[in-house]
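[SOLVED] Need 3D model of a two-part complex

Original post:
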Amino acid sequence: MTARIERPLSPHLQTYRMTLTMALSVIHRATGIALYFGTLLLAWWLIAAASGPGAYAHVQAFTGSIIGKLIVFGYTWALLHHLVSGIRYFFWDLGYGFKANEREALTWGALIAGISLTVLVWIIAYTVGGGR
Amino acid sequence: MSRPSSMRTPLGRVRNLGSSHSGTTDFWRQRLTAVAMTLLIVPVIVIVLMLIGRNQAGAAQILGSLPIAIILVLFIIASAWHMKIGMQIIIEDYVHNETLKLASVMANNFFCIAVALASIYAIVKLSSGV
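Solution:
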């Protein structure tokens, strides 16, 4: 390792006023981390389905419990929010949506769409799954 | 000071460092896998909704069908790759101790490969009906 050279630092985060796009950037990363560890749940579910009725019943007992339902609901929101929030980055990667009102609209859109889609998926889940 | 013959700085030259010419590989793959998952998300959600409330026999039958198995395997590969890159970026952002960083990046690779292979193996097993 070469010796560190003292260079001027960029201002720290607390220097800036918190904005919506900043908050959503943090949430994008946080939901990504949640989804990362949430894949363990998906892997467990698939392995249980391949293992047999006993193992699958364990998964169903967990996903049917209050804590299990909360985790799966949170996972659904994290997945759908990360998806629509990620679609914003496609716009920006392609060079669109950088004006102040455009980036605010995209960010509010992602926030609202993520919540709406989560509620929609759960309504469909209860409508379809309740009959079985 | 003599006229520079290349874009390399003198300091960069003596340290023997320079572009590895692969700087955008992860950036590109992160977008590639993101687009793949954006296309696959609707069928994947439909598959999960089809499985709600079914017992193991019913779930195994659905998961073992060829188009469903293929869609899920594609989604697993894209997501494992995407999350491997994403977590590595986070590690490189926040872990500054060189040894800890190497260990974390390695653990990240192991985790993503293990989760992906275990999930894919389960689907292949369901498809072969053994």
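Edit: The mean pLDDT of chain A is 92.
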